[in-house]
Amino acid sequence: MKLGKDDKMVSKEILHEKIELLIDPTCQKTLKETGGVRYVGIDEETQKAVLVIALEKKESDKVKHFKLELTKLIKLELGFAGLKLELEELNPKEKGTVLDKEKNIRYIGVASGKGGVGKSTITANLAVAFAKLGHKVGLIDADIYGPSIPSVMDIEIKLPRGTEDQKIIPSNKFNIEVVSTAFFVDNNKPLLWRGPMLHKMLEHFFYDVKWDEDIEYIFIDLPPGTGDVALDIQSIIPQCDMIVITTPHPTASTIAVKAGFGAKQLNHEIIGVIENMAYYKNPANDKQELIFGKGGGIDVAEQLEVPLLGQLEIAQPKSGSHSIFSLDEPNGLIYLSIAKQIIQKD
Ligand SMILES: Nc1ncnc2c1ncn2[C@@H]1O[C@H](COP(=O)(O)OP(=O)(O)OP(=O)(O)O)[C@@H](O)[C@H]1O
Ligand SMILES: [Mg+2]
What we know:
Elements: H1 5-21, E1 23-24, E2 29-30, H2 31-34, E3 37-43, E4 48-55, H3 61-77, E5 82-89, E6 106-111, H4 119-132, E7 137-141, H5 149-153, E8 171-173, E9 176-180, H6 194-207, E10 217-221, H7 228-236, E11 241-246, H8 250-265, E12 270-275, E13 280-281, E14 288-289, H9 296-304, E15 308-311, H10 330-344
Parallel strand pairs: 4-5, 6-10, 6-11, 7-9, 7-10, 11-12, 12-15
Antiparallel strand pairs: 1-2, 3-4, 8-9, 13-14
Helix pairs in contact: 4-10, 6-7, 8-9
Bound molecules: adenosine-5'-triphosphate and magnesium ion (MG).
Residues 119-120, 143, 146, 148, 221 line the site of magnesium ion (MG).
């Protein structure tokens, strides 16, 4: 069996769409409404569909019938050789909730694998570029180990106000709504304690923030790493797309590829790669000095089979008080071009 890359993608997408339309018999809502589609894949060797689906109730008489109907759909209608199915139960917060995605919010996670490559700077600047293009944007700083969005955007760290029904009211800066783990984490608490908190905190940010009604995009600044966080994101925000950040250097690009493949395996769409600190423009002779080597960005993009969205130069913004570039600086224009490419793909 030899399918082209695009054929594979299309059939997985169609499979995903079909599965989303199914009705969870234990609550009479579509799986799209409940967010119950956890994983959709195709085992190429056996040509079986691989699904992980969460229902409101796993133990119910109706589940047997659901499985039967699902198998019929997969084999007879969609032509797969068989079905590997794992059933889970929706977590308590999801039950009875119509997810944000019903409102058509697009979640975009920013991941790197390696720390210190510019994830937070890029997340904030991309959010600003989207806002400049007239879009309503939110930003979740999920880096529980080193939340730096407040410092990157120059936002005061304080416990946010809440609504009467206990929802978090986000901060607002540069016309972007922001919530950060920094608002909730006591800096004196040891780092060890933070890992187990991440899942709860992410759930909190996903379900309990009073975002503006018109919000279209929510960026998520992810903690560095490839493992647990990706799984947490997958279970809470399965429809989150990803941008992968690397520097030109192999130490960053090797682990960025790993982070990208990890996200792909969990069925996240990788939008593209951004190469940060690509070069330093020497003011003495206008030459591009390749301080951190070269090739990391294109290498990661090729391996993940996604576009290289842009290459940012080594520079500090003129503003001084925060890390946001304006449109009269080269990096500001590159952020704008990256934002346009992402929006065009919608
Ligand atoms: N293009 C750039 N030119 C110069 N300095 C940069 C550039 N991008 C980021 N930096 C600086 O590098 C440092 C790390 O950036 P940032 O905090 O955005 O990275 P990160 O990947 O989010 O790090 P962490 O893993 O700690 O979360 C910051 O001091 C930032 O100002
Ligand atoms: Mg960071």
